[in-house]
Design goal:
The chain folds into 2 domains: about 350 residues, Glycosidases (TIM Barrel, Alpha-Beta Barrel); about 90 residues, Sandwich (Immunoglobulin-like). The longest helix is centred in the middle third of the chain and has 18 residues. The chain is elongated and about 75 Å long. The strands form 6 sheets. It has a 6-stranded antiparallel beta sheet, with helices on one face. With about 475 residues, the chain is an alpha/beta fold. Helix 2 runs parallel beside helix 3. The chain is about 30% helix and about 20% strand.
């Protein structure tokens, strides 16, 4: 008997394998810059030591998830990547006895690993932003030879030839050059049906697992420079397949441009009907005021149709190949936090802090600030800062000025600025939060209704949480 989408949905809900769609993560109705879950606002903060944790053995995965949750983290990034970087990764397709892959059959181990990640993160209330395609999986750039061993390479499967697929034998260029035919298969591109059918089957298989859960967001690519038609096709495919199962999914695309003002980013910014949120991870290649201003530029563009803005890759770690430091990562995380990002995660080492001790302290400090000032109650308010040097301080405040957060990045000297509290209540309290240690200080009285000179307690990363005394 053929099962309809509605019947399948009903059976899954009755058996407890699927939560009610009303409980799923979605933009919060009261403030659509932020996510909600079960109708309540939820701020997504995290870090992890890899981008595709589902490929980790259970004895490594579970302690990693426990560490994230213990630090106050509740989001990870998960690329569906299968490139053999650690030596423990597996491909999604079945490998035959002759060594060739059959793309029409699945490797159970790959999908069991994915299911384990979904169930274990759900158990810990850790949300997942999935990236379906990663261009670095299909390249030979700098001798990586990933295409040489990949199942989609015609030399390694029994499903199509080089001539039928249009694939080449090597792809030595950086994948940012977008010369890999893998990303040109859709009907409005080269319409390479012999490959597209297996890509479609892969996504359907992914959804067969993920649609049972309520804590998953979807991103089509990792930092793509591909054609718009590719992204459009997969955004619509995801939504249509989910609708057949009676579910709704929230989808975005991640473009490679470091400049958020680049025209390519408008493909997501200008299409809220297609992309339910935006990811601006590549802004994290920028520093200081430029980093802050670029994010606010996106908020202004989206103001007529607010959507959550995620940043799933916060770059920065001492010794990073881009020259970015631990301090860069901390500043980027906190600027985005006060500027109104809905989700922030530290990128994996060596390009990010992952979930090391500095990342843990940041997460603990951010949760301490959230406990005092729910971030969805405030907005960027740079006009309240005076006597400020570049990158000395950043501020967010509520419309009533009864909740104000001021972030002081570590500098040559401890930060000191004037904060205009003229419109704030007369009786306030202030608490310093030490970002480098993840600790809080005493709650102190502070007089409002005037301009106040505010200085960080010492040279380090700190945030001041100012609230109405009542």
């Amino acid at each position: 008997m053929r099962m309809t989408g509605r019947l399948l949905l009903w059976m899954l809900m009755v058996t407890g394998l699927l939560v009610s769609p009303a409980l799923a993560i979605e933009p919060w109705e009261e403030n659509r810059w932020y996510w909600s879950h079960d109708g309540e606002p939820v701020l997504l903060l995290g870090g992890s030591d890899d981008d595709n944790l589902f490929q980790w053995p259970a004895e490594e995965l579970l302690p990693q998830l426990d560490r994230i949750a213990a630090a106050g983290g509740n989001v990870i990034r998960n690329t569906m990547s299968d490139r053999p970087d650690r030596g423990t990764e597996v491909y999604p397709f079945l490998r035959r006895a002759d060594g060739n892959y059959d793309l029409s059959q699945w490797n159970p181990e790959y999908w069991e690993r994915f299911e384990r990640l979904l169930s274990e993160t759900a158990r810990r209330k850790i949300f997942i932003q999935i990236e379906i395609w990663d261009r670095f999986d299909y390249t030979d750039h700098r001798g990586a030879d990933r295409w040489q061993v990949h199942p989609y390479n015609p030399a390694n499967n029994v499903n199509y030839t080089y001539e039928e697929s249009g694939f080449g034998k090597r792809y030595p260029d950086h994948p940012g050059q977008n010369r890999q035919p893998f990303f040109f298969t859709t009907p409005d591109q080269r319409n390479t049906r012999v490959v597209l059918r297996y890509q479609q089957a892969f996504v359907r298989k992914l959804l067969a697992h993920s649609l049972k859960y309520d804590h998953v967001l979807y991103c089509i690519d990792n930092e793509t420079s591909g054609e718009e038609a590719w992204s459009t096709y997969w955004a619509e495919f995801l939504k249509e397949e989910a609708a057949r199962a009676g579910r709704r999914v929230y989808v975005t695309e991640m473009w490679d441009d470091w400049n958020l003002r680049a025209e390519r980013h408008r493909r997501t910014f200008d299409h809220p009907e297609r992309y339910d949120f935006v990811d601006v991870s590549q802004n994290n290649h920028n520093r200081g005021q430029t980093h802050w201003d670029n994010f606010l530029h996106v908020r202004n563009l989206l103001a007529s149709h607010p959507r959550p803005i995620n940043t799933t890759k916060t770059y920065g770690a001492d010794g990073n190949k881009f020259g970015h430091t631990d301090q860069d990562a901390i500043e980027r995380f906190w600027r985005h936090l006060l500027a109104g990002a809905a989700s922030m995660r530290f990128h994996r080492p060596e390009s990010g802090l992952g979930i090391n001790d500095r990342a843990v302290a940041c997460l603990q400090a951010a949760r301490a600030l959230e406990a005092s000032i729910p971030l969805w109650e405030v907005e960027p308010a740079g006009d309240l800062l005076e006597d400020r040097e570049e990158n000395e301080a950043y501020i967010a405040a509520s419309a009533e000025r009864d909740a104000i957060a001021v972030f002081f990045p570590k500098g040559k000297e401890r930060g000191s600025v004037t904060v205009d509290l003229s419109d704030a209540p007369a009786e306030l309290t202030m608490q310093w939060i030490d970002i480098d240690r993840g600790t809080t200080g005493e709650v102190m009285p502070l007089a409002g209704g005037r301009r106040v000179r505010l200085s960080a307690p010492e040279n380090g990363n700190h945030v001041a949480a100012i609230r109405a005394a009542n």
